[in-house]
């Protein structure tokens, strides 16, 4: 059985998005992932520049992840509870969240100078920024999937704009850091969040799809496929925690320049864009469980290489696997989530983002600080182990989906 990401027909009697809608969502994804592209490789370097130890860096990053666990589902549940007018209000929530994130991200630059302890000040900033930025990505996904159901456009192709933007932002950030120092990425991210707010303002007013059964925080857990998706995302996406938190520092210690590191971060997403743009036949053939299995196997190989070497050609090859370790798992998760009842859409998206990705990433990031301090690059073996644990769970997801009806 195969779940479809889009359907060609609009919901009868409801206001449907126009032909410009895919472009507007593409701009939204491009803006928000530009912020991710400049922050993910270099925020740990900013924190290190403020004098934080590896353990303190891990704590700051993990604190942000922990806050997102509570903030994102609360916002998602509120959006689902708005009923037939929910999509318009969800746009307003998204706009407000992006606007506030524009302000809070700058706190990583100036807050330490106002406090006696850089560590304490940066923890406060991490909490505030996580609270306001948490719903940006999952609400964007929920809105885009809802629009794709009504208008019949391909979610993967629209989402590829975010990945392409991430590449350009990561490369630009590497060059900017080399010229102006690490803190420049904070101002680049602020600009990207501001553009995200403007893009959210330009989204069409989509009609709520209503109905669809139970609502509430516990409603998505009635679906066995959703229940198996959570541990799979936790293991596979969570295995990126050491990479996100310490790969840049590890590669800097090996003598790689900021520009080369920026290229390494951006390179893997090039193939991810190709997967989103042209991989639909592969996605249709494998289905969610097959995509998850492919992501787990790729992660096992990728983290093994990173554990064993910092030789640039090997790193360049391993980085290409990001298209599978992240991209294939993301598309698989979206195919599971698009099959949820419309009345549970935002709740399921934000619960998956928080429990399936955020909780694991937060706990693993916290543990990766001492792990990296003790073992350096050898800590990537632990990430490979997580992917090995995920492989048998993909069979459970396959079985749950086999008995799940296709949602039109």
Helices and strands in order:
Elements: H1 21-49, H2 54-80, H3 86-104, H4 107-114, H5 118-133, H6 136-151, H7 155-180, H8 184-201, H9 224-238, H10 241-253, H11 258-278, H12 280-308, H13 312-319, H14 322-337, H15 345-375, H16 380-402
Helix pairs in contact: 1-6, 1-7, 1-8, 1-10, 2-5, 2-15, 3-5, 3-6, 3-8, 4-5, 6-15, 7-11, 9-14, 9-15, 9-16, 10-15, 11-13, 11-14, 12-13, 12-14, 12-16
Report on the structure:
With about 400 residues, this protein is mainly α. The protein has a single domain (about 20-400), classed as MFS general substrate transporter like domains (Growth Hormone, Chain: A, Up-down Bundle), CATH 1.20.1250.20. The protein contains 16 helices and no strands. The chain has helices spanning about 20-50, 55-80, 85-105, 105-115, 120-135, 135-150, 155-180, 185-200, 225-240, 240-255, 260-280, 280-310, 310-320, 320-335, 345-375, 380-400. α1 crosses α10 and α9 runs antiparallel to α14. The longest helix is centred in the C-terminal third of the chain and has 31 residues, at about 345-375. It is globular.
Can you summarize this structure?
Helices cover 77% and strands 0% of the residues. By secondary structure, it is mainly alpha-helical. Helix 6 crosses helix 15 and helix 10 packs parallel to helix 15.
Q: Count the domains.
A: 1
Please state the second-level CATH architecture: Up-down Bundle
Query: Helical percent range?
Result: over 70%
Low-confidence parts, pLDDT < 50 over ≥5 residues? 1-15, 83-88
